UniProtKB/TrEMBL annotation:
Positions with biased composition (Low complexity): 38-61, 76-89
UniProt-listed Pfam families: KH_1, KH_Vigilin
InterPro entries documented for this protein: KH_dom, KH_dom_type_1, KH_dom_type_1_sf, KH_Vigilin_N
Biased composition (Basic and acidic residues): 103-116
SUPFAM superfamilies for this protein: Eukaryotic type KH-domain (KH-domain type I) (SSF54791)
Residue stretches of biased makeup (Gly residues): 1240-1250
SMART domains: KH
Gene: LOC108048640
UniProt biased composition (Acidic residues): 947-960
Name of this protein: Vigilin
Disordered: annotated span: 1-116, 929-963, 1225-1303
Biological processes, Gene Ontology terms: regulation of gene expression
Comp. bias intervals (Polar residues): 11-20, 28-37, 1267-1279
GO molecular function, one term: mRNA binding
Length: 1303
């Protein structure tokens, strides 16, 4: 086969020589095919083998035709080369090309000329986009335009019309056509009108149905209008029901029929009454249509033909060359000059087409009149002089002058001169003398501006325009005024330029200033940051503190935060790119912090535990706030609300909630109980608007009572709270349920809101007395109720009536207003009326709304008047007297604390000192820091005369006592015992520093990753910790703070040291290592499937078991690490497993390696089932073991189980051998080439193939070698490369192939 492949490759490489020797190949193959053609195309013959030289071990040779049978015969006649080449239809391109020329005089002259060639290209691109035609534009020296249009016919017509509309002078004309002819002009669906517009390059406007006008307006070029008019009139004429006739008159004689100014034509129409339609001069048609009455048409036709014949006899022609630019002066406006020449001389002037380059003018008329006409033509051609002056486009406006001043002056000095500003030229036309004067005048102006003025164009990003212009144009106006320049912003064709014009020096300076501004702006960037507008106030901060910090960091960045009225989330940043990016990141970081610290949660805590949450001097609440970094708001002292609101980061808020609830749970026995109450009584127990159940919860210490949902159909009501309060609430609920079972009666009593507290009594004593006496429940209105005077009574009818009578009696007493007095020393009056009478308002609320009046200042009266109910007056008098007694008992003491420590004592925003004043009900006054006068008799840390000097006496040596100044003395006012307690609280706030010994090895643990642990420690204990540098390896650390906090920190550090020492000792005990020698054969069993055995050993004995790695020198050693006792226990367990494994029976059986995979099964399922069923281990030989004995299979287990498994495996092996190995096909006489390659041929004595490989007899390449021709097969041979046959077609004799014959 290698030889065959080489031959084929060689034939492919020599493909270029195929046609050189085809005959030899064909002749050679014909002989072979005759010898070896098989008898049947479908038979498969067994290849015959021959021996070479009669040797027994010769390589067998097989017939090529037997191994590679030919394809079935081709039943269709092959197509001959000559017949196959059918005549192809000619394919022509649908693309057409047309050239359109627009002369200079017909170019549209508009303001757009100043845009130049760029604007022309833009228009052409737009036309290309709309029509699909390709357009190329070329501008001539004489300002004419030539267009090359490529595209389909319809595209050409559309593009031509749009080009003429865009570049050619547009005129319009109105044509009168009867309205009944409009439909013919429009055509079906307006198709005829669109085709007419396209072919004439015009726009035709036909009046709508509601318009009574009979005028059709045609707009476009002159030729187009004339052609369109002719077509419309022709369509209209054809619609006349009267007679119409046509006559053919050569175009050159039409002017004589029409006459000057259409005089002859009008005269003929008047004389005959017929309508004569003569094609316009621009339309190259000879046919004249005459319509009207039959006789009139005949008469008109006769006269027209008579004029034609007469002029045909008389006319002669003469041609004259006139410059193309002067033709329009010969033509005149709307052809008036040609008509004038015809009128004066009777000679027709024939002009070349506008798109022609010819300059020849032909005069046609009587011979005698031609000379006069020629003179007139020359006069008209030379009556106007045309001159062009070079002038840059930017100077044109200066030439025109301000408000056209120069042009007005030119018009006065040089009348009848037409001035037209082109791209870089100014064209003047008019009387030759006046034109010369105008040229001199304008040239002087142009020269002056070219010498002294200049312009510069700067390319600028449009986003910079507003910054360059400035507010209300301030920047640009300043430059204009100072430098006398003109600055314009140009935006066209995708270009964004700033153009500066003016004096040269002014333009240069303006360019420098603008460039400097642009460079600065290019280094800036703007960025919009989307931030929820609800967070804008938080970003700004109190009095703008937060946003000011950001602005201070990025002073060059402008930060614009929208006002609340703007209702947008976009915050704008502008400034240097780097600063803007950094500011953007900082703002997003600030927003994230605000969002994270804005999580709010409400924690219901029973009112009686709020004081414990606050702690002594606010210590607990402060500690929770500081350690959790949260904001915790408790309800006011008089507020009945029990909810504590926590704000901050979510995880911190949850931690604070947990710690607050922990305080409540530790202090009280919070329980939850369920009470069974029939659901039908729920509504009556809850009461209207929840009044009744709310009153029960309030009376029972604020317990939580929850009723099941109506859908649950449960009869269990849940009560949660302190154990005693829950029992109390449970009793009341059961009592209410029993009352509802007996009866339910409700009544209402009205009482002024200010009397409600008096009715309730202190701690609810009065109302409880009434309820106990009557058994009725009395509910007062809550804050949510709209009617604050209604008191509801619920219970049995008899009980409700009794309670109502008692309440009404008390209310009647409260309503009887009386007046009482109480004596208060005037020196205390100020205390009561201070803070806008806060104390008086509180007394009035507590005592039924009494009115308390103090005497006016200056009257020196000590009588205070109280008005209200008798009992209320008495209660108010008692309260006032209690307050006066407190005031009388007040005293002032002094405590000396160095002024430098006052800030520490006060705390952040005075928090610490406020806690002291609130807890001890005293007033604390700090001295002025500038009062540095010395004070005698006091020492630092001591007190003044009123307070005694104990507490700090003897704590300091005399020589170390600092002198006392006025700014060191703090004054405390209140009851003496409270003042002393407050003084001690202040002294406890003085920070101290203490040195503690902590092992140096523990310092790293105290510091933590990046100092996290030490920061948490300092925050938790409110102290400052200073650790020594690591290079000193000192054990001493310094802790500073208040004495209490330092003591807490010391205890915490001592606990850490104790834990550290214990942990170190424990680590030493856990580091015991025990090594065990175990045969590697048992390692896999110790590991177990997926590590199950070894993991269980580790878990059971709490040790680490390490097996040897591959590169370990001793592969038998297993290491056990842990406590000694546990390591020894693990060792015993391992030895026990190994011992069990060593007692197992082992047997090796022989199974053909070819069926090992069948026994193992897909993913080991078959062998695993055997292992599980017989509790044995089965091992197949590894790659190394297979070299010695690949058939060996080892079975390990109990002897009985091994025998059973052995029988099963051998049985399986026997089945597989019978089913698979014995049924393999025999090796001799294979039916495929692949079989021959692996087996020996028939007649061969040896079992394997010879070293010469597989040989095929009579193959094409062998024949080629015999013919000594190594070329590739003929690709033209139909035998080698046949067509697939069509059924039933006759078979032609094929060309014989080098590959052999076919059947």
């Amino acid at each position: 086969m290698q030889a065959a492949a080489a031959a084929v490759m060689e034939e492919s490489n020599n493909a270029t020589t195929i046609e050189q020797q085809p005959i030899a190949l064909i002749n050679g193959q014909e002989q072979v095919s005759n010898e070896q053609q098989p008898s049947s195309p479908t038979s498969v013959a067994t290849p015959t083998s021959t021996t070479s030289g009669g040797t027994g071990n010769a390589t067998p040779a097989f017939s090529y035709d037997d191994l590679f049978p030919a394809l079935p015969a081709n039943t269709s006649a092959p197509s001959q080369s000559g017949a196959s080449s059918s005549t192809l239809a000619r394919v022509t391109s649908s693309q057409k090309t047309q050239v359109l020329h627009v002369p200079c005089e017909e170019r549209k002259s508009t303001e757009s000329e100043k845009f130049g060639e760029g604007e022309s290209k833009r228009i052409c691109q737009q036309i290309t986009k709309e029509t699909g035609a390709q357009i190329e534009i070329v501008s001539g020296k004489n300002q004419s335009l030539t267009f090359l249009i490529k595209g389909k016919q319809s595209e050409l017509l559309d593009a031509r019309r749009k080009i003429l509309m865009g570049f050619s002078t547009q005129a319009s004309r109105q044509v009168t056509v009867p309205r009944e002819h409009y439909r013919v002009i429009l055509g079906k669906g307006g198709q005829r009108l669109r085709e007419l517009e396209r072919s004439t390059s015009t726009r035709i406007n036909i009046p709508s149905q509601g318009d009574e006008s009979e005028f059709i307006t045609i707009a476009g070029t002159k030729e187009g209008i004339a052609q369109a008019e002719q077509e419309i009139r022709q369509l209209s004429a054809e619609q006349y029901k009267k007679f119409a006739d046509r006559t053919t008159v050569p175009k050159i004689y039409h002017p004589f029929i029409v006459g000057p100014y259409s005089e002859n034509l009008n005269k003929l129409q008047e004389e005959t009454g017929a309508k004569i339609n003569v094609p316009p001069q621009q339309v190259q048609k000879d046919e004249i249509i005459i319509s009207g009455e039959k006789d009139a048409v005949a008469a008109a036709k006769a006269k027209v033909e008579a004029i034609f014949k007469e002029m045909e006899k008389k006319c002669s022609t003469v041609s004259v060359e006139v410059a193309k630019a002067q033709h329009r002066y010969v033509i005149g406006p709307k052809g008036s000059t040609i008509a004038e020449i015809l009128l004066l001389t009777g000679v027709s002037v024939e002009m070349p087409p506008n798109d022609s380059t010819s300059e020849t003018i032909t005069l046609r008329g009587p011979q005698v009149a031609l000379g006069n006409a020629l003179t007139v033509v020359y006069q008209k051609a030379n009556s106007v002089k045309s001159v062009e002056i070079n002038a840059p486009h930017w100077i044109h406006k200066y030439v025109i002058g301000r408000k056209g001043a120069n042009m007005k002056q030119l018009e006065e000095d040089c009348p009848n001169v037409n001035v037209n500003c082109l791209e870089d030229k100014i064209k003047l036309e008019g009387d030759p003398e006046n034109v010369d004067r105008a040229v001199s005048y304008l040239s002087e102006i142009i020269s002056n501006y070219e010498e002294n003025f200049t312009f510069e164009v700067m390319t600028v990003n449009p986003s910079y325009y507003k910054h360059i212009i400035g507010k209300a144009g301030a920047n640009v106006n300043r430059l204009k005024d100072e430098l006398k320049v003109n600055i314009n912003i140009e935006e066209r064709e995708g270009q964004n330029n700033i153009r500066i014009e003016g004096p040269k020096e002014g333009v240069r300076q303006a360019q420098l200033e603008l460039q400097e501004k642009i460079d600065k702006l290019e280094n800036e960037k703007s960025k919009d940051v989307i931030i929820d507008r609800r967070l804008h106030r938080s970003i700004i901060g109190a009095k703008g503190e937060k946003i000011r910090e950001v602005k201070d960091r990025y002073r060059q960045v402008t930060i614009t935060i929208p006002t609340p009225q703007e209702n947008t989330d976009i915050v704008k940043l502008r400034g240097p790119k780097e600063d803007v990016d950094k500011c953007h990141k900082d703002l997003l970081k600030l927003v994230k912090e605000i969002q994270e610290s804005s999580h709010i949660i409400e924690v219901p805590i029973f009112k009686q535990f709020h004081k414990f949450v606050i702690g002594k001097g606010g210590a607990n609440i402060k500690k929770i706030r500081d350690e959790t970094q949260t904001k915790i708001d408790l309800p006011a002292e008089g507020d009945t609300n029990e909810v504590i609101v926590i704000t901050g980061k979510k995880e911190n808020v949850l931690e604070a909630k947990e710690r607050i609830q922990k305080i409540q749970n530790e202090l009280s026995d919070i329980v939850t109980e369920e009470v069974q109450i029939p659901p039908k009584y729920y509504n009556s127990i809850i009461g209207t608007g929840g009044k009744l159940i709310s009153s029960i919860m309030e009376e029972c210490g604020g317990v939580s009572i929850k009723f099941p949902n109506s859908d649950s159909k449960s009869d269990k009501v849940t009560i949660r709270g302190p154990k005693d309060d829950v029992e109390k609430a449970k009793g009341q609920l059961l009592e209410l349920a029993n009352e509802r079972q007996l009866a339910s009666y409700t009544a209402e009593v009205r009482a002024k809101q200010q009397h409600h507290k008096f009715l309730i009594g202190k701690n609810g004593a009065s109302i409880r007395k009434i309820r106990d006496a009557t058994g009725a429940r009395i509910i007062f209105p809550s804050n949510e109720d709209t009617d604050k005077e209604v008191i509801t009574i619920i219970g049995k009818e008899e009980s409700v009536k009794k309670a109502r009578e008692q309440l009404e009696a008390i209310i009647k007493e409260c309503d009887e207003v009386t007046e009482g007095e109480v004596v208060v020393d005037p020196k205390h009056h100020k205390h009561f009326v201070a803070k806008r009478g806060f104390i008086l308002h509180r007394i009035s609320e507590e005592c039924g709304g009494v009115m308390i009046s103090f005497p006016r200042a200056g009257t020196n009266s000590d009588k205070v008047t109280i008005k209200g109910a008798k009992d209320c007056i008495e209660a108010a008098r008692q309260r006032i007297e209690e307050i006066v007694a407190d005031l009388e008992a007040q005293t002032t003491i002094e405590v000396v604390i160095p002024q430098r420590q006052h800030r520490t004592i006060m705390g952040a925003r005075g928090f610490k000192v406020q806690q002291v004043t609130s807890e001890f009900d005293v007033q604390i006054k700090f001295p002025d820091r500038d009062a540095t006068e010395p004070v005698e008799g006091l020492t630092n840390g001591g007190s003044g005369e009123n307070g005694g000097d104990e507490g700090q006496e003897g704590e300091q040596e005399a020589e170390s006592v600092e002198p006392v100044r006025q700014c060191d003395v703090i004054r405390i006012t209140g009851r003496i015992e409270k003042c002393e307690a407050a003084k001690q609280a202040l002294l406890d706030l003085i920070p101290i520093e203490e040195e503690l010994t902590v092992p140096f090895d523990l310092h790293r643990t105290i510091i933590g990753p990046r100092g996290a642990n030490v920061r948490q420690f300092m925050s938790k204990h409110d102290v400052h910790v200073e650790l020594p540098p690591s290079e000193l390896k000192s054990d001493v650390i310094k802790v500073s703070g208040t004495p209490a906090h330092v003591a807490e920190a010391r205890e915490a550090l001592e606990k850490m040291i104790e834990d550290y020492e214990a942990d170190r000792a424990d680590r030493e005990l856990r580091s015991y290592v025990l090594q065990l020698d175990v045969d590697t054969e048992y390692h896999s069993k110790l590991i177990g499937r997926h590590g199950a055995v070894i993991n269980k050993l580790r878990a059971d004995h709490d040790v680490n078991i390490s097996l040897p790695k591959r590169d370990d020198p001793n592969q038998r050693i297993i290491s056990i690490t842990g406590y000694q006792a546990k390591a020894e226990a693990a060792r015993d367990a391992i030895l026990e497993i190994v011992g069990d494994l060593q007692t197992l029976y082992r047997e090796v059986i022989e199974i053909d390696t070819r069926i090992h995979s069948h026994i193992i099964g897909h993913r080991g399922r078959t062998i695993r089932k055997v292992i599980e069923d017989y509790k044995v281990d089965i091992k197949f030989p590894s790659s190394d073991e297979a070299q010695s004995n690949p058939n060996a299979v080892t079975i390990i287990g109990k002897e009985e189980d091994v025998e059973n498994a052995k029988e099963v495996l051998l049985g399986m092996a026997e089945d597989y051998e019978r089913d698979f190995l014995e049924n393999l096909p025999p090796s001799p006489q294979p039916q495929t080439v692949g079989a021959f390659l692996s087996g020996s041929g028939s007649g061969s004595g040896a079992g394997g193939a010879s070293e010469n490989g597989f040989v095929i007899k009579d193959a094409p390449w062998e024949k080629q070698k015999q013919a000594k021709n190594l070329t590739a097969p003929n690709t033209q041979s139909q035998e080698d490369f046949p067509h697939f046959a069509a059924s039933g077609a006759p078979v032609a004799t094929p060309i014989t192939s080098v590959w052999g014959p076919k059947n």
